[in-house]
Amino acid sequence: MHELLERQATSLARQLVHVFVEEIPIYRRLPREELEGDITMITEHNLRMICEMFRHGHPPSSAELAPLRASAARRAQERVPLEALLAAYHLGARWIWDRLIATATPADFAAVVDMNRLVLVYIEAVTSAVGAAYLQEREGMLSQEQHAMHAAVSALLGGDHAALAAVRLAPGYLVMAIAVGAHPDEKQDEPGGSIAARRKLARIRDAVQRYASEQVLFVLDATGGLVLLPCGGEPPAPAEVVEAMSRAAGVPVWAAAEQATPAEVSAAAGVTEEVLEVARIFGHPPGAYRLADVLLEYQLTRPSRATARLAGLLDPLLDNPDLLRTLKVYLETGLDRRRTAELLHVHPNTVDYRLRRAVSLTGLDPADPAQLQQIGAALAARRLTPR
Predict the structure, then answer these.
(1) InterPro entries in the record, alphabetically (predicted)?
(2) Which helix (H) or strand (E) is 4 found in, with range?
(3) HSE of 226, CA atoms in CB hemisphere, 13 A
(4) 24-28, 37-41, 238-242 — which one is most confidently predicted on average?
């Protein structure tokens, strides 16, 4: 059998490459020169290696496997999926086996058993060699990609114009500062909790990457961080991206977003982090926020002697928490006394009484538009300066 296989190795290799193209989709996309060159050559090498196994009855040597490892590394560089590569080896072994035993008779039973054992040894050896070489090459490539990603992030956040010129950047970025809730599985003791956290982050990265054709840049830990989503034109809606992250991770996600050119990323990152902090301080629900959504709260968080004075406008209500709570809910419901009564589980007349008491104590009447703005600002300021 080894003599028969050796005589036909070259023609069988060409036939087998044709089978790969027919049966494995990604092989149809490989260049013709690669199929007729490198792929055909390594296929013929495999056939001759099987010949030697049949001739001597021993597994392939490390030297015989070396061309397979080199070929696997090249496929990794070309981003041919590992499963497609292994499928080609298994398909090739099965295809050759069918032809080798096509003329076997019952008298050949012992020889067929020996050949089958050697083919299984071959599959085991090449799967191990090819898989290890492919993964080693991919790890090296990922390390380079991570280095390039870190260089890009450092240049963008540092605003270093010289460094920006040295890295490949997108025309623009959707800059998102995010805060991520804890997944229930993260409450487990180590290592289960840390594994759950890493899986959560991986799902978030995958969800965001679907919105970009280029590599999204991440600076994340289990509680959140920064996302730089490259975009050549109109960026995706931040609310949509946040919803996708939350759905994929199974946790609530808060985000602040700004669109920026590469030179503006550093400043945009600072703004989004501040907006996110404001949204969390003021108890906003999970979702996407821009500066325009929290203008009043944002301004109140800037250092100012007026903040404490604003908060103090409602100090007369501290001895009666029901009055302060009623005033707060009344503003949150858009001055709807009936809805306020429902939320507080009291009669609307009670709401009217409490509001009159609040007006008499503070001198601020929500029915007056100017004073209504002061009340809203005072309630917001109290979030920052608990009294």
Answers:
(1) CdaR-like_regulators, PucR_C-HTH_dom, PucR_C-HTH_sf, RsbRD_N_dom
(2) helix 2-23
(3) 23
(4) 238-242
- What whole-number distance in Å separates Cα of residue 138 and Cα of residue 73? 8
Whether residue 99 sits in one domain with residue 2 = yes
Contacts of 267 (CB under 8 A, 6+ apart): 159, 260
Sign of CA dihedral 327, 328, 334, 340: negative
Residue 233 is which amino acid?
A: G
Say how far apart CA 43 and CA 68 lie, in whole Å. Answer: 9
| Residue among 194, 191, 62 at smallest CA distance from 132 | 62
Domain of residue 78, residue span: 1-141
Q: 299, 320, 351 — which closes off a domain?
A: 299
Which of 176, 175, 173 has the alpha carbon at shortest distance from 255? Answer: 176
Q: pTM for the whole thing?
A: 0.55
Q: How far apart are CA 113 and CA 3, in angstroms?
A: 18
Domain count within the chain? 3
Instruction: Give domain status of residue 159, yes or no.
Output: no
- How far is the C-alpha of 131 from the C-alpha of 143, rounded, in Å? 18
Q: Are residues 11 and 26 in the same domain?
A: yes
Residue written as token pair 């492919």: 134
228 inside domain: yes
Task: Output the six-digit token pair for 121.
Answer: 């040894």
pLDDT tens column, 223-254: 899 999 998 778 899 999 999 999 999 999 99
pLDDT higher at 300 or 68: 68
Q: How many CB atoms are closer than 10 A to CB 291?
A: 15
Give yes or no for a contact between 190 and 285, defined as CB atoms under 8 angstroms apart.
Answer: no
| pLDDT (average), residues 41-57 | 90
Instruction: Please provide residue 108's backbone torsions phi and psi, each rounded to the nearest 5 degrees.
Output: -90, 10
Q: Is residue 119 part of a domain?
A: yes
What gap in Å lies between CA 219 and CA 199, rounded to an integer? 16
255, β-bridge pairs: 178, 288
